[in-house]
């Protein structure tokens, strides 16, 4: 098993299980390693949980920014186009509610 940790195709790059991905603390040979998203090692549950929270916050902000961009695009399209109704002869913006 020790040869697995030492075996590497490129000697310049350390093996991915040598250090915690968050705090860079060296991972011991005979210690627990907490994995996340495939091959991301962490030295403790706390480090792994912190990374999960960071990832969730990043994904949430990306979803909010992309949804706000698409909302702004759809609003600009609907506000720029107007139609004339034949029965009332009033200009009405598409996407708005008309109350009589």
From TrEMBL:
Transmembrane segments: none annotated. GO terms for molecular function: zinc ion binding. Keywords: Metal-binding, Zinc, Zinc-finger. Residues 15-59 form the FLZ-type domain. The keyword Zinc-finger applies. A zinc finger (FLZ-type) spans 15-59. Pfam families: zf-FLZ (PF04570). Residues 63-87 have a biased composition (Low complexity). Residues 57-100 are annotated as: Disordered. Coiled coil: none annotated. InterPro entries: FLZ1/2/3, Zf-FLZ_dom. Belongs to the FLZ family. This is FLZ-type domain-containing protein. It comes from Rubroshorea leprosula. The lineage of its organism: Eukaryota, Viridiplantae, Streptophyta, Embryophyta, Tracheophyta.
